[in-house]
Amino acid sequence: MPTELSVNLNAVAMLRNRRDLPWPSVTGMGRIALEAGAHGLTVHPRPDQRHIRFSDLADLRQLIDAEFPDAEFNIEGYPSAEFLALIEPIRPEQVTLVPDDPRQATSDHGWNFAEQGEQLKPIVERLKGRGARVSLFADADAAQMPAAAATGADRIELYTGPYGGTFDDPEAAAREVQRLGLAADAAVAEGLGVNAGHDLTVANLPALVRRIPDLAEVSIGHGLIADALEHGMAGTVRRFLEACGHAG
To answer: Is 109 labeled as catalytic in the residue annotation?
Structure first.
């Protein structure tokens, strides 16, 4: 099956928040993305609400439930008590847990499962008990996948930032794709599904999808929203879907 596309709306929200005005509309841009064929929407609500606001969550849940019942809502975040209390009433189809410090500009590393796996187990169990699929942000480290699987999570999301950083170095890009592929192979061998995200683009997605045929989903924000400035949201979603292996 082709890799599914979840559109991360954080950059849209960050632009909106520059003014005390309701545009660009986070739900409006989400609607355009889903109408164009995106399989879901992703947000990462941070404690300071510097991009996605807590109030956006219910609005996006309503959008999906009312207009796109087959789409998925993926909420990312560090599993603090406050985060869990915030998202559980929203009933996301997927929760992606990241090891971020709240002060970080963006996610830039995966969990150390050998050291943090026991901390994650009860949180994974809690979220799965509420009907969510649980994905854990992971570095491209095949050796960590047995410990990742031991948490009880459904999937890992491979951190692809180092791969995105090789945009001007084809040899380095090939090495990063292989590292990601080996980590994905190890995850699949442990019974985990595989997602990926961070600095993915129309240009670098095809090689990743070829190397990881079991890649279930990519979550893309910065590169997709940057392209949308040139191609529009609907046209950009279609471009990314084609890069993911969907027929044009």
So the answer is: no
Q: What is the pLDDT of residues 193-233, one digit of tens each?
A: 999 999 999 999 999 999 999 999 999 999 999 999 999 99
Is 51 tagged catalytic?
Answer: no
Give bridge partners of residue 135 from the DSSP assignment: 96, 155
pLDDT > 90: what percent of the chain?
94
Q: How confident is the model at residue 109 (pLDDT cuts 50, 70, 90)?
A: confident
Choice among 4, 72, 176, 198 that is catalytic:
198
Pick the catalytic residue: 72, 76, 157, 217?
76
| Selected catalytic residue, list 4, 39, 44, 217 | 44
- Note if 76 is an active site residue: yes
Domains and CATH numbers, the chain: 4-243 (3.20.20.70)
Does this model's pTM top 0.90? Answer: yes
